[in-house]
Specification:
Length: 70
């Protein structure tokens, strides 16, 4: 299990790193959904943690895009 990523740590990463991390988390979210559907989910709390991390990454990516457009 990975530790949660803080927004301040994400802001120091480049767009490619954020994109790679986002794809990783989306895959994990998909796998967790499949485990839940088949009744094999061992850590139900991880679903909400991953969802929040995805939202955090998307927020930072949006802030960087808006900031670059100024």
């Amino acid at each position: 299990m990975k530790a949660s990523v803080k927004a301040s740590e994400l802001r120091s990463k480049g767009p490619q790193d954020l994109q790679k991390l986002l794809i990783e988390l989306l895959r994990e979210q998909f796998n967790l959904r499949m485990q839940k559907a088949t009744g094999q989910l061992s850590r139900p709390a991880r679903v909400s943690v991953v969802r929040r991390e995805i939202a955090r990454i998307k927020t930072v990516m949006h802030q960087q895009n808006v900031g670059a457009g100024r």
